[in-house]
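Friendly challenge for the regulars: who can give me the structure tokens for this chain first? No prize, just bragging rights.
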Amino acid sequence: MHHLLAAVIIAGTPVAYAPGSPGQEPALVARPDAFPTLVNPMCSHCRDEAKRRAKELRDDEPVLCWIRGYSDGGVIPHRFFLNTYRVISDTYGVFVFDADAGYSRGFAPSLDFTFHGWRNGVMVMKHKDGTLYSCLTGVAFDGPRKGDQLKTVPTLVSNWGHWLKEYPQAVAYHMFDKYQPVETPAKPSSDSMKSRGPADKRLPPENMVLGVRAGKESRAFPIDIVAKAGLVNDTLDGKSVVVLWHEPTRTAVAYRPIATPPGKKAGGPRTLALEREGDCCFVDKETKSRWDIAGRATAGELKDWTLEWLDGVQVKWFAWAAELPETSVYQPPKESAKQTDAIKEIAGTAEFLKAIPKKFGVLQEVDSGRSALKLLIDGDKEPTSWLLTPDAEVKVQGWWGRLEQLQPGDRVWAWFKLDRKKQPSGIFMLADEISQTEINGKADEKLAPAREKQKAWLRERWNAEGLPGSVGLVQLYNGEADIVLDHEAMRWGRSLDRGAKVQLDAKPPIEAVVKSVRPEREKTQVRLVVKSIDLAELNMGQRVHLKMKAPPTTVDQDLFPPDIDRPKTKEDRLEWFLASIYCTCGVKGNICTGHFYTLSSCNVNGCGAPNATRKAIAEMIDKGLDNRQIFERLHKERGPEMVRSHLLP
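First reply, four minutes later:
Bragging rights claimed.
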């Protein structure tokens, strides 16, 4: 199956075409009777045609999609339409499919075009006034309008199953019985082959590229390079370009990284910094908005905004080079051996728990008001004074607790924060002896009553004071703030629903409404809508408590996290799982970060467990298992350590 992107309208100067040899025009093979042209077919919608031809339409059916306009654009199955009608002249667009050159795309609506033949191995169509146009570039090379360039309709090639799932309301042609499936020819047309000139030897002729035009420049992005990178940043015509890759349908798309709001919505275009997320989604660093391959924001602050297209098409190299001989070929930047070694060096030391000192000692003094203590460390002759970090974890009776619950004389286990000189500067985890024993071994059921009592005590504290966390971001311009809740608040925080009313501790309390909730490794990010005047009370990094209505006790007791049914896309589900379970690999000792925090906290450059788990979960998703089924299967395979902080003895 071949794929492509056809993109935004580019009105440019006439393009010079390569002759078969110096001084010779490319060969034109006219065969107007080779394929019939379909004119203005009757329309329907994807969801309706899925029912009408359910037994014949396949999920992997290649389809040409126009991705803007009424009802999120439309879709044309190749087997039912484009394999038979290589040119469709319609009020939605002029759609073409060139099986020999491996592309399909769309141009501005017209009822005046018909299939004509081949030139340069590329399909040619004819306007009713006699003008001949390249079906690849849309440039007129002969006839009354010679030098004219057709406007492109934003299109891409996907598959039927994906597009029906994502855009069931999209337009589709009414699939009358006369439209029967026809397979794509296995061999190239002899007439197309006759029209080819000498091959450009920079790449193998049949290699697929994403050909992109911007202003007076054109560039070919080899598909194997794009697929490996997943996202390519480049510059074309002096401006930034981002090439996105959708692995499930093997689709490449080129955009300017500029987003525009829908319709008349307030707000001008915004420049984005996109990052790849999973195998088919992309996230903007600033707004955390999630984008699909169609350049539409599907979630986040910029939901329903769209990216600015560039004119591009997935096509075989011989065709792109023949029509645009001055094209450049993208080459990924080379990373020096020194850079590679530097990354490995840093990554190799990034397993956090490996580097920190962990000491046993006896408490001498406790000042919970100042989060301070005096500790006599085993082997020392004199006690030393320490401050707990603002988000320090305190473990009591095998559960989270507070410093005030510990007393002088208690034996404790402390984890020390290091400064850049690798000297201890504070304590960020403190556990009583019972908790330390459980952290480093299996949960002792004899201690279950004490642990349950501690859970009840902390629940009361949360209900009275709120969930502890820090201000992650204050957005004055739109009245929003991000609160990053501590590890201990994972269950309660994730139980919050969009629209829930909460308070932040202040005098008077700050009223807020929950906009979104998502895991952030072992922590939880809650985005709040707050009155702008109240945002003056908040500063980034500030410690706060978020008060919420206490959820049912089942939220604390259930095997499943409370938000298990929320993640929808495959990428969301994969990241949610890694942020919801603890690592159960066989690494022993106080080393593995993913054991004590969550699997998403493991360093993927130095540990194979996160990627192995991600792969295993992806396979279960592909088999159709829902989140609960996957969670149960993982729990059965990995045991109870999967759902609790621990370290292997």
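The radius of gyration is 30 Å. The CA atoms of residues 49 and 175 lie 7 Å apart. Your move, everyone else.
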